[in-house]
Queue: 2 jobs
Job 1
Amino acid sequence: MRIYDVIDDKRNKKALSKDQIDFWIKGVTDGSVADYQSAALLMAIAINGMTDEETYYLTTAMAESGDALDLSAYGDRTVDKHSSGGVGDSTSFIVIPVMAALGRICAKMSGRGLGHTGGTLDKLEAIEGVTTSLSEEKFYAQLNSAGLVIAGQTRDVCPADKILYALRDVTATVESIPLIAASIMSKKLAAGAKNIVLDVKCGKGAFMHDLKSAEKLAQLMVETGKRAGRSVSALITDMDQPLSDYIGNSLEVEGAVEVLKGKTDCPLYKVAEALCVRLLNYEGAEKDVLNAVRSGAALDKFREMLIAQGAKEDVLEKPLCRANCKIEIYSDKGGYVQSVDAMKAARTVLALGGGRNRKEDSILPHVGLKFNVRRGDRIEEDGLVATMYFDKYEDVAYAKDVLDAVKISDKKVSAKNPVLKIIK
Ligand code: URA
């Protein structure tokens, strides 16, 4: 077989066979297929698409290109979640402890933030003492004793995806639904869980800007996961406005802890609850999720995980955000909040130093925003819009951008349900 012919077939809109896709991915992993050949093939796929069958072959080939977690000893109790990346999204810190409190096994391998979306590892490491770099031995030991781990990759998982993602990033081929589906699902398959829930974000602050493409991506990922023998479902959730009022690394953990301490009347809990319900998949699961929060069992699990990963015993008894400065930002007019722009809010946090533009950048863990209003709220003139936390005094100038992110007018608008669709 020659890679030239594989590229030629896709350029001529033919469906690739399993053998052709395996040949390509093996060549990507061992270096026998050159980057320029993969780049050409990626572009042909981005333009001509893939059938569901081709997407499945690509997903499994990438999942098998490196190491995988072996969770077979835990049977059907293993769960995992994935978010396609949003703003103020700290659902992992609620879903994983709730599921562990309900006896599920949660081995979550997460990533770092890049661009406007935050990364779970950065958020956890914003907590004093916490590490997310665990040896394989420590990873499994914690999983056995506590039932939950959130950490970085312990081994070389999906090396083919790493190479292809870097190529996609510089060849305008990231936004291809089969390529995104295969990239996400290959990592989920290699992470080993039997039950998987996907949170596909849709709106201004997300990869997918409209419901139709979010639905297409979600459907394809669910079908691909099912073909691979996993139980998979997806939510499509709103990302026009930030999911929680807290944006920034330590602040987002604080927002999740507030929920685990009983604040369940907020969109962050609503989405976390819906994700847990999909993973539990039985009648009346909502009640068990709420009980796990109300009883404090989920908070105890989260504390147990943080302490196992290096935090002090009283970690959740003190504020987690330790920024040098804070300023309260007030509205210059009264009315109804039409929207809180997720992208503008995220870019402000990025400018404050809370995110990175390049992989090697370091971040300021405690800077960020806490909004006091959401879409649909009434606000008076001089009402509190948000509090901005920052480290460098000159950054006070960004307060203006926070005000710009919140649109206020006389028109009454209703709050939006954050769960837009469920795909089973
Ligand atoms: N996240 C991934 O892991 N892969 C993609 O292609 C897009 C988002």
Job 2
Amino acid sequence: MAGKSLAEIEAIYHQPLFTLIDQARQSYLAHWDGNEVQLCTLLSIKTGGCSEDCGYCAQSSHYKTGLEKEELLGLEQVMNIARQAKESGSTRFCMGAAWKGVREGTPKFEQVKEIIREVSTLGMEVCVTLGQLTDQAAQELKEAGVTAYNHNLDTSPEFYPSIVSTHTYADRLSTIGSVQKSGMDLCCGGILGMGETVTDRLRMLEVLSAFDPAPESVPINSLMSMPGTPLEEQQPVDIFDLLRMIATTRILLPKTKVRLSAGRAHLSREAQALCFYAGANSIFYGGKLLTAKNPKENEDLELLKLLGLNVQEPRQTCMARAEIH
Ligand code: SAM
Ligand code: DTB
Ligand code: SF4
């Protein structure tokens, strides 16, 4: 199915807020159990010292962010954290590395595949975000046990060059193509609050909604402004803008998991509740994202309990997801 045009997406997004939320809720309930939220644990397996100049990122070597660089974690270290994640209720384990990309046949890629092979024995969904891939590297990651690859578009093609100069939007699309060809699920979303316009955000949704197959998950991040980066002074995203983006994403991609991602630490309980109501059905769980703050585990469990929301069981993805493939 072809994606929607920008004009059609704008018409959805700019409806009266309650009409938009009602439409998103209906679309959500048609495909999902509206009282379930997936918990995903995020782990930075290689931190800082990245060659890229993404203006939002604390891990770029282009900026003095005070972040301590760490080499690739050892297999046992990752396994211990992955086992804990499973015990604490996460059904997805996401490993991130501050790299421009990975290439087949290199020692570092072999090390990462070894980690993936072991983590995949635990039975959680295994997501990695390692930067740019070749077709071959994507194929090998799939064979090692990766279920989903995260590679975000982050914003519109027009705004992208204002936040990154060391790679292009076309590079992002090429990696996304390799992921799709390999048969791994695609996790692909963006960041709000980098100085982009609403049109940029909706252009990103236009690109996302045209992917075939549809992305399995879309993380909606709000900028965590990191000291030392060019975007350190950005103002926080307005909750109604975030809510409109979540609802619009849910309507455009009804069978996709919409992940309320970075920025939750700055949201009230009420704001998060509204995001869940409008169709967000996945969160990063654990007090730290890659380097930035996230709500504490006990606070999240308490909030889910207060709202009467259940933690999603393993592999209970969208009832209709089979139709995507
Ligand atoms: N290096 C790989 C890449 O760029 O694809 C993987 C790691 S990168 C940190 C993954 C994603 O985290 C980025 O695409 C961006 O969406 C998100 N991210 C990074 N820093 C962020 C920040 N300060 N606030 C919100 N999201 C952020
Ligand atoms: C995504 O879209 N958000 C996560 C995950 N994919 C890898 C990362 C958020 C990073 C927030 C900033 C930090 O922790 O440094
Ligand atoms: Fe590197 Fe990824 Fe951060 Fe960009 S977002 S600087 S590629 S770790």
